[in-house]
Hints:
35% of the residues lie in helices and 26% in strands. By secondary structure, it is an alpha+beta fold. It has one domain. The model has no long low-confidence stretch (mean pLDDT 91).
Amino acid sequence: MVDAWRSSNYLDFFGILCSFVDKDWKLRIIALDFAVLQSEHTSEYLADILWRVLEDFEITDKVISVTTDNASNMVAMIRELQKKFERVSQNNPEKI
């Protein structure tokens, strides 16, 4: 799950949560990142941040879906993220 927003004191944030079922079949939800954004909430910028977090946690090959609201920048971010997954799978098919 991801979301970006502006606080009342004009700081921009991007929250990234991960939900998964562990080996004991328990649902787990953890915060992967809570980034202060340094730029506008463009789809490319948000996709770059999300991709970096997925790489940092070495889970690019474990992502099944991404949940967000349907704000236009988030919908476009998913398209940008899809391009990144496609590049990785073309260059390294055993990774994805």
